[in-house]
Design brief:
alpha/beta, Rossmann fold, 4-stranded parallel beta sheet, 8 helices
Length: 185
Amino acid sequence: MARRRRFQFPPKKRILLAGEGDTDRALLRWVTRPFDDRFAFQIFDGGGGSSLHVVQTIERRLRNDRGGRRGAPDHLRRVVFLDWDIWDDNDPNCQEARRLAGTIGLDLRFFRPKVEGVLLRLHPGLETRDPPAHAVEAELRRIWPDYRKGLAADDIAKRFTPDRIEALTDLDRGFRDFFRWLRSQ
């Protein structure tokens, strides 16, 4: 009797994404949902703190993954989203973060001024709001009283309709470039 062959789906392309904290990861998880059928997203927590600390945490995690039995998966692309308000091109730590990111093949993208600013601009009618970093969280809480740090992707999905993911391409240059690249694959 002939052996039956099981149908195997082609492997999904792996993409590593990282954010500074839980809210960043939740936003990244929510915006990548439409692409889940084509890509396998591995979303890391960068551990917060300075940009250098986030990049070092990702570098350490990648190095540790390689030490495993199966080794680290090959990623089609590696992207970290950082808060723009703590980035300074003249800061030696930021320069070191950019250098280290280049050596491990990590693209730097930025939430402007930080992830709460992106969440604020996702609200219809507030797309052009650009409050300073120190005031953005308070303004977001006025619009979204249930907002809290560390929310999950499902919390974001309850608040926003999927068409707001498309709106994000108009609101944020980092996401626009990333989505354009995803669609080209």
